[in-house]
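> example.struct
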């Protein structure tokens, strides 16, 4: 077995135009001061890094690594969640995602997808230049509007949807194969890949591509009423990243999974700071350790109630306490008599 690395922190929710959250150096110094060992960097935050430059210049990539390491931290992974979203966008969501791409691509559905694809390819090379082995992303969505269909879906719609999604991602996955880096999809409502079944359909469509993997975040599964611990049994060989995020689901006679169009604080299902929700992290850390997951345990703060800085401070200790230093011994080794083939045959009566 292997010991999970951590604690790490995803910087996306903390990026700001005010110190210490407005530069990579200062936010890393802050993260180190509250107990973190690694940072996951959102590649769309220009004050943290220039993704294209990191792809095209090993020297620049080393400089970014150096800034992080001078703070006593490591880069856990890069994130391309916003760019990944734009790889596949249904036209109904076109304008809603304009803010994820450069202003000159406003309203240009095809242009945003092409830009996003290039961004992912830059991210593959940038990750390679930084010595990283995994990257987090979203899949995008062509079919989400049909997830609970009325009227019924036209025959073949799902098959066509996954075929098109695969066509868009295969060149990207091939670029990641060339770079030796895994793409880890965060299975998330709003994405075509949001649970095990949809991930399996995608995997089949991309011919079981070895670089198509999973960013495991149990909060999204709890809010879908899934067995998030058994999920690890099914997909542990594809789980290459881990977001430690808590959530709670408290349905009432008035609302359930869909939330009644309410804001997060009024929903039956909502994200919480670590330890304030219902996710069984003892079971999760045990299961991941059992299956030799040796990636990073990375806090993703998304809480409807608690201040992010408070959540971050509490989160580093929470993760540190949950990481299991795995054993190299068996508890009953003291009673071992060693290996003796003649004794074994005698015990078996043969």
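> example.seq
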């Amino acid at each position: 077995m292997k010991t999970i690395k951590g604690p790490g922190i995803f910087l996306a929710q903390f990026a700001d135009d005010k110190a210490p959250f407005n530069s990579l150096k200062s936010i890393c110094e802050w993260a180190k001061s509250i107990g973190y060992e690694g940072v996951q960097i959102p590649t769309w935050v220009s004050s943290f890094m220039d993704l294209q430059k990191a792809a095209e210049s090993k020297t620049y990539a080393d400089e970014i690594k150096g800034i992080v390491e001078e703070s006593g931290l490591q880069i856990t992974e890069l994130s391309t969640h916003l760019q990944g979203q734009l790889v596949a966008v249904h036209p109904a969501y076109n304008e809603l995602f304009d803010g994820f791409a450069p202003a000159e691509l406003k309203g240009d559905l095809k242009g945003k997808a092409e830009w996003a694809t290039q961004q992912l390819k830059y991210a593959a090379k940038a990750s390679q230049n930084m010595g990283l082995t995994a990257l987090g992303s979203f899949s995008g969505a062509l079919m989400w509007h049909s997830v609970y269909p009325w009227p019924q879906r036209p025959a073949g719609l799902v098959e066509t949807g996954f075929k098109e999604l695969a066509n868009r991602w295969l060149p990207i996955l091939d670029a990641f194969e060339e770079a030796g880096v895994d793409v880890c999809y965060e299975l998330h409502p709003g994405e075509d890949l949001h649970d095990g079944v949809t991930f399996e359909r995608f995997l089949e469509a991309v011919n079981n591509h070895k670089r198509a993997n999973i960013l495991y975040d149990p909060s999204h599964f709890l809010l879908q009423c899934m067995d998030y611990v058994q999920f690890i049994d099914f997909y542990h060989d594809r789980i290459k990243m881990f977001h430690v995020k808590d959530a709670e689901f408290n349905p009432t006679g008035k609302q359930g999974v869909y939330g009644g169009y309410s804001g997060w604080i009024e929903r039956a299902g909502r994200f919480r700071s670590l330890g304030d929700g219902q996710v069984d992290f003892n079971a999760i850390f045990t299961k991941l350790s059992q299956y030799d997951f040796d990636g990073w345990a990375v806090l993703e703060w998304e809480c409807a109630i608690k201040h992010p800085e408070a959540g971050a401070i509490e989160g580093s200790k929470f993760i540190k306490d949950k990481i299991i230093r795995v054993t190299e011994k068996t508890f009953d080794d003291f009673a071992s008599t060693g290996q003796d083939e003649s004794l074994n045959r005698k015990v078996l009566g043969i």
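> remarks
The domain at 5-348 is CATH 3.20.20.150 (TIM Barrel).
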